[in-house]
Specification:
Order of helices and strands: HHHHEEEEEEHEEEH
Number of helices: 6
Distance between the termini: 104 Å
Largest sheet: 5 strands, antiparallel
Shape: elongated
Number of domains: 3
Structural class: alpha+beta
Helix content: 40-55%
């Protein structure tokens, strides 16, 4: 502990305060410049976009931590007593007044190390669906498909479930359902859906695709469901891929007379149809 007779001015570098403020400003500016530069690189080299985004997150963390340490060293005479005093005071303050902030900062480090998701991933969290655009010291920013930026404290990810659709890859599995009537040509319909999948300009052919068939109930009557599963070549084209395949399927179904589900009327076994 610091003796009561010790003047706090003795531990402050009066001229260093200005230097510390300048260091913090320079740290913020450097982080912004690096973010902007790497974002431009990601737009130019799209096949490396996710890797560049992840590097940007790590570099930003390192810059902020280094800047804070340098600012403290410039502003204070960091003797053993000062270090103990600052550490003790900070621990008490963070423990009581900044409990949630401290939890979010620690959770940010856990996210970087454990990597449940990465910058560029398309995730679902607590009903919100979109792309991770940044992982900061305090929060994660998620850009939804309707162009909203959602800010989520880091500590929320430690207790709630988050689902990542691509987990560091550009390509992502997309699932689309199509329904036809029980009396339709199932083999033809399945073949047509497969052709629509593979002919789309957004499909990633490096991974297997499939069309699964099952019965389902729609509005209290049975239908055949064709579930198309294929990888889109880039997560940013997910909705464009769904739209393109759906338009193609609707067009060929109409061309070949594949009808949607409907209620089928048929006589009971052994019972003649009523006379007209």
């Amino acid at each position: 502990m610091i003796n009561s007779g010790t003047n706090i001015i003795d531990f402050i570098r009066v001229g260093g305060i200005v230097t510390g403020i300048f260091i913090l400003f320079a740290t913020w500016l450097a982080a912004r410049i690096i973010d902007a530069t790497l974002a431009k690189l990601g737009g130019r080299f799209t096949h490396k976009r996710l890797l560049i985004n992840q590097v940007s997150t790590l570099v930003r963390f390192a810059i902020y931590i280094a800047g804070i340490i340098l600012a403290l060293m410039a502003s204070f005479r960091l003797s053993r007593e000062v270090i103990l005093a600052i550490t003790g005071t900070a621990a008490v303050a963070l423990g009581f007044a900044l409990k949630d902030l401290t939890a979010s900062v620690l959770a940010g480090f856990i996210i970087i190390i454990d990597r449940p998701f990465q910058v560029g991933d398309r995730v679902t969290f607590n009903g919100t669906y979109g792309d991770i655009i940044s992982i900061g010291l305090r929060s994660v920013r998620l850009f939804t498909l309707d162009h909203n930026v959602v800010t989520i404290p880091n500590n929320k990810f430690l207790t709630d479930i988050v689902s990542s659709g691509n987990w560091g890859d550009l390509e992502m599995l997309v699932q689309m359902d199509f329904h036809i009537g029980l009396d339709q040509d199932l083999g033809l319909a399945k073949h047509l859906v497969g052709e629509c999948l593979t002919n789309s300009p957004y499909v990633f052919t490096g991974k297997a695709w499939e069309v699964l068939v099952s019965q389902t109930v729609i509005d209290d009557y049975i239908a055949l469901r064709l579930r198309a599963k294929a990888y889109v070549l880039d997560v940013q084209y997910e909705k464009a891929f769904e739209t393109d395949v759906t338009e193609r399927v609707m067009e060929v179904f109409n061309r070949y007379g594949i009808q949607p589900p409907t209620i089928l009327h048929r006589p009971l076994s052994g019972q003649a149809s009523p006379r007209s």
